[in-house]
Amino acid sequence: NLRVSIEKDPVAHATLSLRALFRAFPKGEVPEAYYQYIRGEITREELFTHPDVPAEAVKASQEAKLAELGKDSPEDVDHWIREALAGANEWVLIGGPPCQAYSVAGRARRTRESQEEFESDEKHFLYKEYLRIIREFRPTIFVMENVKGILSSKHGGSHIFQQILEDLSTPAGDLSYRIRSFVVPYDVEKLAPHDFVIQAERFGLPQTRHRVILFGVRSDVASTCPALLERSKNLVLEPSQTAFTVEQALSGLPPLRSKISRGGDSLEDWLAALDEASSILLRPYVAGRGDLIDTMHDAAKDARRLSSNGSRFIPCSFLSPKMSTKQREWFLDPRIKGVLQHEARSHMRSDLHRYIFAASFAKLYRVSPKIHQFPEQLLPAHENVSSASVPFSDRFRVQMADGPSTTVVAHIAKDGHYYIHPDPSQCRSLTVREAARLQTFPDNYFFEGNRTQQYTQIGNAVPPLLARKIAAIVSSVIDSYRAGKIRQASQGI
Q1: Which residue among 35, 85, 285, 394 is buried most deeply as judged by most CB within 10 Å?
Q2: Which string of DSSP letters, residue by residue, matches 186-213?
Q3: Rounded Cα distance, 369 and 388, in Å
Q4: The whole model's pTM is what?
């Protein structure tokens, strides 16, 4: 029962309020008007005023508040939380401070800034607002997420993560929390910082997303909860026995051709651009690589079966997805009657050449090529093209079909070079829906805004399936705590 969420971006807020409306209905009872809206058949206003959408559902959608923590009025935030709790004794606070100051990539972009400017960045201490809410409202449990880079981030010569742990462990003199890991049982002698890292691919997600997630249990709750006292080893995420691959996650979605961003964008022009790719490779490169050229030729030939580059809604029956029953139940919704937000980007001709080369290389050699493995004719005109730095060596990265994807981050909104589709015949980067699949958003989850804003929301998110697995552990702790209180009451304690 999600009571209040706070989001500073207006477009992401619109997405959250739409999903809150969806959640206001029991499973299977969402009105058809919702599906009409996400298919583009009615407007958002028509959805929210539709006779099949009762006032209670519209009110539930208002749990999503548009505000920026730390800048907007703390009094307003406190009022929203107090009103939402309505005196509840057991509740959970979920969230995490913005991560730009902690991410390795974010810190790398600051190399030209003075140390003083970096040290004074207020983003280092946005967790203080989270801490203030804990101190004020004393949640039974809190869950705080951040990037892995927080473990190595320093301020004033000291590790920020250690300071955060100390602050969260004792927010006030009469308030303390036991900080647990979701992957390492608490009965170890001492948790190391890396014990708080969740590697998503180990737990049945199709993505190698590594994030720090803290599990704080109020001390009086921890000392009363039978599950924590007697079955602590059970309160961790259960590793998956099999990998969830990119091929499985994207299966069932209609294949698409990319578009050409400059010049003509007819199917004939696109097919010609793919045919050009192998012809521009000179003999010094292709010597001994006839199989690669053949793979590129085959991909260009297979591409002739593709005519659509997708749209906001594609009416269709699903191709048979290569998923388990549970995965199908999580992702698929036949009431959509098709696929949402599955539209290919436009790419320059030169990038089409690179994409079909890279995807063909990956298909043949089962590894995405590094930039030094590209033919000279396909190298971008960039001053760092010969650099050995990791970001540029992976400038064009194919998401390998037979394993989980790399981390889907907000940068996907800027270009698709790091997210090349594994099928060389499609010769494109991932669509919004494909990125959402890798992030484990159900197919009926609709993202508001333009395509750039949709990608940004997806890249910034915690994977919903991982959140669901974490929620199950949190729920079991609260249920056990309630049972423990009942047992104590019956014993007169």
Answers
A1: 35
A2: TTSS---GGGGEEEGGGGT-SB--EEEE
A3: 14
A4: 0.92
